[in-house]
Amino acid sequence: MRCYRHPDRDAIAVCVGCGRGICEDCAAKIEGKFYCKECAEKLFEHPPHYVIGSLLMIAGGGLVSSIPILGFFSGVLIFLGFIILIFGVLEIVAGHWLWHSLRKGGTLGIILAILGVLASTILILLVPPMASIEAIDVIINVVLIILIAVGWNTLH
To answer: Where are the domains positioned within the chain?
Structure first.
């Protein structure tokens, strides 16, 4: 394969963004992936919309996973505490993958956000005193879904 800009040179890689062959002079290596100069500039020209979403997921996962399960008095609440802990860890993983522009992070993020909206809606219906806290969670998850969807085409 030849470089798309220098047809007399062999390509050393294929651009992750556009799929064109690139020579050593045209290649930009970012986080272990090769990009042509144009695609590399696009990455830094406009920050991806999902960066905010990934930060929300990492922060939310950290907050949720730090909830102590001490003081819960029934087996059901302890079980729910472990489920929350697992979801917190998954949110951190999804946020990390999103930060690195990976589609698997977007997919996991959307799945977790949808599950979060469903769980919060159920809690609002079952435990009315928690409605204001859960309403905030619903809003954050809906914003997250929108941010990931808007930036979906930029994920690899």
So the answer is: 13-45, 50-154
